[in-house]
């Protein structure tokens, strides 16, 4: 992945926009929206990070309608109420596009350093191609504070980027005057001198002085609000959340189909907050072996473990997350009638008490290929499992069959598209 500081170093290739972004920006302009791209104009052909937009408050409701009409889903933050997020999965480019929309200019991990600069930056914006961009002076100061406050501190890569555009910085502009009122022109002068000399340590010292002065000027209400947001963030409650409720997605398939690889890969790549949940019940652990020595203790232990995992998935769904369930309990359908009565009863209890799935991904793989990958079970048994999984498509739960003979990347791409279509459809149904 391209480092943000490295990408800022290159001149913007403003004609190289991702088609979905080009359509969206054109629609915003045609509807007279007041907006601008805060940074990263050279990363829009394949945006791997957030696309950061500043929008006027009076345009916010109209922007929401336009963005959602272009198939983006809205997500929100439990901590940052002044922020809106929108996500879109584009199957053709296998890319998640995420918009991070703000109405105010603020800095810090939870945007606790507020400023009145938003409207002025919008008034001074300039149109380049399809993009509205900040004035060069505003762009320099905003990028400096983004690196220094949002990222925690300046690095040598950040300093190099800033030094290249130092000529655009003005102390007597609106941004500079505001920062001088927060700290002093002396602090700003030391900061600019350190950037010009690419002195990372001195620049961070000056930034720390600016930060402390900024915090000291905040009123009591703002400080308390920032403390609450930081506390929630530490509890992992401040991250972007998807539309509530979330979704429990079961990944099924025979051994060798790549269930775990796919489930973990989806959690790493999704722009919508996603969590991996291992739901297997029969894997022998140290505790399982000890409990098995006690007659009749295995079944209560397995059911207790299942209920604990169900509780976790339920909690994550309520928080609006997508939960990718590996080794889902529908494996209990594979227990044959010839199995011991205890095993059959356990399987029935599991099916009754287990976490319901909102959607099923079935990795379809012929037994011959599954056997060549894992070498476990017989080809005949694996093909029986395959038929059992495919029979689940007759259930009421939405499902998608994915060809697991493809490469892992193509399987991942098809699974991403299937989940995105499911989430998008459910969202549209709830809006009507």
* Class of secondary structure makeup: alpha/beta
How much helical structure, as a percent, in the residues? 40-55%
Gross morphology is elongated
Give the strand tally: 15
Radius of gyration: 26 Å
Strand order within the widest sheet? 1-2-5-4-3-10
Largest sheet: 6 strands, mixed
Q: What percent strand?
A: 15-25%
Distance between the termini: 39 Å
Per DSSP, the total helix count is 17
Give the low-pLDDT segments: 1-13
Describe this structure in words.
With 432 residues, the protein is an alpha/beta fold. The protein has helices spanning 4-9, 19-30, 60-69, 118-123, 136-150, 156-164, 174-182, 185-196, 200-217, 220-234, 259-269, 286-292, 298-318, 341-353, 367-374, 379-391, 408-431; strands at residues 35-37, 50-55, 73-77, 83-90, 95-102, 106-107, 113-114, 126-128, 131-133, 240-241, 247-252, 274-278, 322-326, 359-364, 399-403. The protein is built from 17 helices and 15 strands. Strands 1-2-5-4-3-10 form a six-stranded mixed β-sheet.
């Amino acid at each position: 992945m391209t480092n943000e500081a490295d990408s800022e170093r290159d001149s913007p290739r403003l004609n190289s926009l991702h088609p979905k972004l080009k359509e969206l920006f054109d629609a915003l302009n045609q509807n007279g929206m007041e907006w601008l791209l805060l940074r990263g104009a050279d990363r829009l052909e394949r945006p791997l990070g957030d696309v950061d937009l500043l929008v006027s408050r009076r345009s916010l409701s109209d922007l929401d309608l336009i963005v959602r009409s272009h198939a983006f889903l809205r997500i929100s933050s439990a901590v940052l109420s002044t922020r809106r997020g929108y996500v879109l999965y584009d199957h053709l480019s296998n890319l998640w596009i995420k918009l991070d929309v703000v109405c105010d200019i603020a800095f810090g991990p939870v945007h606790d350093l507020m400023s009145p600069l938003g409207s002025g930056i919008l008034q001074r914006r300039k149109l380049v191609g399809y993009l509205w961009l900040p004035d060069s002076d505003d762009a320099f100061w905003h990028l400096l504070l983004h690196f220094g406050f949002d990222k925690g501190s300046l690095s040598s890569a950040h300093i190099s980027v800033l030094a290249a555009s130092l000529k655009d910085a003005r102390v007597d502009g609106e941004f500079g005057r505001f920062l001088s009122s927060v700290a002093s022109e002396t602090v700003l002068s030391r900061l600019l001198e350190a950037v010009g000399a690419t002195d990372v340590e001195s620049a961070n010292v000056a930034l720390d002085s600016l930060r402390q002065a900024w915090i000291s000027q905040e009123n009591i209400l703002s400080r308390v609000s920032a403390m609450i947001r930081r506390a929630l963030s530490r509890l992992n409650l401040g991250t972007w959340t998807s539309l509530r409720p979330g979704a429990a997605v079961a990944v099924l398939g025979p051994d060798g189909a790549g269930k775990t690889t796919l489930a973990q890969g989806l959690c790493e790549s999704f722009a919508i907050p996603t969590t991996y949940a291992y739901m297997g019940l029969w894997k022998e652990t140290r505790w399982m072996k000890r409990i098995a020595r006690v007659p009749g203790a295995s079944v209560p232990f397995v059911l207790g473990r299942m209920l604990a995992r169900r509780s976790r998935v339920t909690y994550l769904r309520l928080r609006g997350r997508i939960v990718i369930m590996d080794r889902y309990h529908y494996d209990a359908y594979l227990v044959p009638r010839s199995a011991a009565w205890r095993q059959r009863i356990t399987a029935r209890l599991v099916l009754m008490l287990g976490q319901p799935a909102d959607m099923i991904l079935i990795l379809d793989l012929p037994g011959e290929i599954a056997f060549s990958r894992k070498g476990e079970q017989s080809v005949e048994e694996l093909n029986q499992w395959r038929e059992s999984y495919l029979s689940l498509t007759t259930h009421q739960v939405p499902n998608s069959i994915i060809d697991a003979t493809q490469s892992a990347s193509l399987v991942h791409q098809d699974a991403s598209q299937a989940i995105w279509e499911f989430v998008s459809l459910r969202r549209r149904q709830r809006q009507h």
